[in-house]
Amino acid sequence: MEILLNRLRAILDDKGLVTASSEAEPYLTESRGRYRSEASVIARPVDTDQVAAIVHACSDEKVSLVPQGGNTGLCGGAVAGARQLILSLERLDRVRDLDLANNTITVESGCILANLQQQALSANRYFPLSLGAEGSCQIGGNLATNAGGVNVLRYGNAREQVLGIEAVMPSGEVLSDLNGLRKNNTGYDLKQLLIGSEGTLGIITAAVLKLYPYPDHNATALVALRDLDASIELLQTVSHGSNGSLSSFELLPGLGMQFACQHIPDCNNPLDDSHDWYVLLSLQGSGAALGLDAMLQTLLALALEKGVIVDAIVASNETQAERLWRLRGGIVEAQRFEGGSIKHDISVKVSLVPEFIHRAVDAVKDRLPGIRPCPFGHVGDGNIHFNLSQPLEMDTQEYLSLWAEMNQIVFDIVADLGGSFSAEHGIGMLKLEEMQRYKDPVSVNLMQSLKKAIDPDSLFNPGKVLP
Ligand SMILES: Cc1cc2nc3c(=O)[nH]c(=O)nc-3n(C[C@H](O)[C@H](O)[C@H](O)COP(=O)(O)OP(=O)(O)OC[C@H]3O[C@@H](n4cnc5c(N)ncnc54)[C@H](O)[C@@H]3O)c2cc1C
């Protein structure tokens, strides 16, 4: 390490190296506190050349490196061992180009997602990727994990926002594809290979991203459903009748609403009675799309008439819409006040979401009476955060010791329905066992071959993604 440290000192400026334990702390702990990095050196380059020089130095000294963005990942992907270097991209945070004629923005990977959204907004454009951690996650981390969020239904995942990528490869070469072309069929699409690879194939240093017209009008509603199955009927009604403007369609369980209203300030259920299942939905549009409120009112009236929904409130202004969305965020935050929570981030075909929830709820209740399932999330994409709060009287550690067993119960049902055990958050270190158990062996073998071909010495993020 000492030789590497000397080389790093020669590459980086005086803010480029963190070795003091007090300063290192934020890079070592991760958001759920499941893992802790043991690395003692954090490199903070300012440009792509410095990243490439660090990669060369690490390669020579045989020290593997772990790229780190905002460190908000939920699978331990940015966690480093004692003999590894954390490569933080936080200082690569410039906007390199804002091209309004082509509706693109070229940013460095350390740009915080919320800042990027703001940059787009200041040019009267929209960057649609939006998730709970947007105030601290970085676009490089979003691309490395192919992040999802609340607007996937209309705009797609992170990978669908990308027109080009710049990345430093394990050889130290820079893959530069920042032309911003919307069509380019010249062989394999390497940027898409890097997106979702969780720092195991390349270090993303910049990207060209798509911008959209700013949706100057939103119509948001909180709806109480007849029952869980009605969520899919409502989704059909709204997506067919809303002229392509449906951007979010989130399932909220009655128990989650209860948690949020009890524990989180500013969370109130605006509907008169409590219900088992709700949907929070938004239509978005710009210019000619004005009239979304009326469209939403008409669609909800139809759903009410058919008995699909039993109550609804449409936000009459931006502040009310924000209050409704606060409930969605509140459900995420409130679960920690209810003791241990065993979490899953699964997907099945959209039409199978109710069947999955019915089966999985029954199965976990059979295993542990008193367990409190709180499934919520992106039902419009078939992606449910199947979270399980502990029984009220149970010891938290005893409950959390059932995590692996609960995983198997839940993931077996997911597999039976042809779904995915990891829809949004990735694999990292957390889901290596599941990769082995549930991912088809041909895919895993191909991934291993690709990893070997691109990174033969396992320099980038070893021990992540692949078993
Ligand atoms: C409150 C909260 C809400 C969340 N909501 C969502 C959600 O709705 N949808 C969703 O998909 N995720 C969500 N997440 C998970 C997380 O925010 C995302 O995975 C995010 O994209 C990670 O970005 P990051 O910059 O924090 O990356 P990090 O956590 O730093 O890293 C994540 C992975 O990417 C790699 N990596 C980071 N930067 C680079 C780079 N420049 N080049 C190569 N590899 C890199 C790391 O090595 C690691 O494997 C949420 C997390 C929290 C805490």
Keywords:
467 residues, alpha+beta, Uridine Diphospho-n-acetylenolpyruvylglucosamine Reductase, domain 2, Uridine Diphospho-n-acetylenolpyruvylglucosamine Reductase, domain 3, Alpha-Beta Plaits, 4 domains, 4-stranded mixed sheet, 16 helices, 35% helix, globular
Describe the structure.
The chain has helices spanning 2-11, 21-28, 48-61, 113-122, 139-144, 152-155, 190-194, 230-241, 254-263, 292-305, 318-334, 353-367, 396-400, 403-416, 432-438, 441-454; strands spanning 17-18, 42-43, 65-68, 85-88, 95-99, 104-108, 125-126, 162-168, 174-177, 203-210, 212-213, 217-225, 246-253, 277-285, 309-314, 341-342, 345-347, 372-378, 383-389. The protein is an alpha+beta fold and 467 residues long. The protein folds into 4 domains: 2-88, Uridine Diphospho-n-acetylenolpyruvylglucosamine Reductase, domain 2 (2-Layer Sandwich), CATH 3.30.43; 95-213, Uridine Diphospho-n-acetylenolpyruvylglucosamine Reductase, domain 3; 217-335, Alpha-Beta Plaits (2-Layer Sandwich); 339-427, Alpha-Beta Plaits (2-Layer Sandwich), CATH 3.30.70. Helix 8 packs antiparallel against helix 10 (292-305) and helix 9 packs across helix 11. The chain starts with a helix and ends in a 13-residue tail after the last helix. The mean pLDDT is 96. Residues 31, 66-74, 77-78, 89, 109, 131-133, 137-138, 140-142, 144-145, 147-149, 198-199, 203-204, 424-425, 428, 461, 464 line the site of flavin-adenine dinucleotide. Flavin-adenine dinucleotide binds next to strand 3, helix 5 and strand 10.
